[in-house]
Amino acid sequence: MKPLFYWCLLLSSHLLAQSVPNQKFVQEVVTLHTSATGLPDGKVNHITLMNNQPIASVAGKSTKFNDGKWTAVAAGKALSQPPIPNIQGTKVLAGVPYKNGWAIGCEDGLYFYQKGKSPERIFPKNEHYSWSLRHVTALVMDSKSRLWFGSEEGVGYLDGDKWKLFTGKEGLPYNQFTCAAAGPDGLVWFGTNKGAIEVDQDQFKYRFSRRWLPDDQVNAIAVQTDNGTAWIGTDKGISQITRQSLSLEEKAQHFTKQVEERHNRMGFVAQSHLKEQFNIATSEVAISDNDGMYTSMYGAAQAFRYAATGDPEAKALADRSFKACKWLVDITHEKGFPARVIIPVDWPEKVNEIYSREDNLRNQQHDPMWKDIYPRFPKSKDGKYYWKCDTSSDELAGHFFFYGIYYDLVAKTEEEKQAVRDVVGDITDHLIRHGYKLVDHDGKVTRWGDFSPEYFNSVYGYDQRGLNSAVMLSFLNVARHVTGDKKYDAEAKILRDKYNYHINALHPKEFFPPENVVPWDNNICLMSLYGLINYETDPSLLLMYRQGLEVAWQHISKQKNAFWDAIYAALANRFTQQADQKMFENKGLFPENRLYASKVVKAHYKGNYRTGFILENLQKIPLDLIGYTMDNTHRLDVVFDASPLQDKNIGWRTDGYALPIDERGHVRQDRDGFALLASEGDGHDEHEGTFFLLPYYMAYYHGLLEVGEAK
């Protein structure tokens, strides 16, 4: 019998783990103040605080913020700055009172000055660096009495008699400083001519671009001592960055509300269009190329939510998503062919004029594989709707990913389960009927819907055979699991025995050349592996698919993508459980190589992931999902990809991992985390909260959330 202490510890750990969704963390939220919100036009030269309320000097005019409004005030002592002593022979750039004197930043270095004594030039030094500073343009004393400086060499602080120094290697993103300010608990902000830098417990957060600031030229910063709110003055207005206390569950409620209010079009979920750049008040529902996938992902999020929480709203939303996805299949020209999009015939965009035959031919001039099909939006049989054709593997991967999850976690009644069987059977039978191809209303295969052996052995499809083999086998596994029909097992056996689809699936993701490495293939791959592995019962195939999972994971394991991390971790943990259950100890699994099974188990017994990255990503996803253009190619803490044929837009932090998601030019979880220059609509689109909801509820359901705040 185990001691009582053991059971108490186990119980307390379980309760602690269950509290993760409600654990509070700091969520930074931006409010921009410009002439559009009452701030005077012009450059913000200075900001100070009076009673923790900002007073700013804007183009020579003083204005204060109170009760949500900016009002003019007479210039007075609130905006005056104490004169900094001059240092003879050099230009003074910054200064701060320090130890009954001053610390003074100059063009040629840092000086300590006390009245009646000669200035002492300071040379910061630690175990890694010894600096003769230049252009010390930022100085500040923090709340822990540490003196901070910003110079061309980097950032540092003096704590007692010891220096701590930072360059790009230690995470400093940029070094052209303009100002500095201190907040509570040792928090420090630096202004630069390309954004602001927040330093919290020696960790750097880069706040730049329209996501964070009205303009990147930062001239002044003030930080409230009560709650750490930063007021950042730029050439075109003020950014108010507030540190809100939030839980993951509260964040999920925010994003569910966002999707339901601005991203629900007849049950389909996609990004919305902003008629006025950056203004969500002008949001209007839009369509995407992948409404089926994105609706499936939202439905899967709500299915995991329902399984984890039992919330009846989650079931209702999952049910609605299922019906929308099934409608995409039921509306088309042939049983089992899913449309990309459904819109009413009075949709404001003239879609078939946009996708005219002439336009198809023009597209083929730069993209020979572009399919010349017309109409791209056929009319439904009842004449009420248009549906978009040329459906891709993205759509199918989304459908099958969702249907298996919905069937297992949400469908309760026989009627609900039969509806899933019907649609899964229809799509799979369409593929089998057409030789593993998705065949359009013109009788020809869609551009990205070919899973046939002939395609894989062609010059056009050889590079797709690993991914599409895994995808097709996954579809068959989901179909067999949902319908119970063993004919799908028979089809999978043909593909394995005759065409080696399972061998192809050992390499399910291309890594080179760069044009073959597209991030949405990561989505297709991992979503399909989820169904392939979860519904596979043959131990020999599970060993092979586990190897395939690891191959796919190697290229994306450092992107800090909570969705991909959650899928990999869930499947890797399942393999660990199966190994613990002695599932792979049958000596006859691979008679031609009796060491294969034991070597795979040994190599992949534990998944190579860190659940803390899932938590970090979920916490850092901004509440504002407008797509902003962000250019990180100037950063000091980035290592550029030096691969042959690669451009200079790909890189990662010096620690080898992708930049935090709130510093990238995308918020979607189906993009390349290593892209340094990226945009998601340049402020003309708002993206759906699915990209938080799905990884959050999936990780919650699979027990992958850690206690503790990510840094």
Automatic annotation (TrEMBL):
<dbReference type="InterPro" id="IPR015943">
    <property type="entry name" value="WD40/YVTN_repeat-like_dom_sf"/>
</dbReference>
<keyword id="KW-0732">Signal</keyword>
<feature type="signal peptide">
    <location>
        <begin position="1"/>
        <end position="17"/>
    </location>
</feature>
<protein>
    <recommendedName>
        <fullName>Two component regulator propeller</fullName>
    </recommendedName>
</protein>
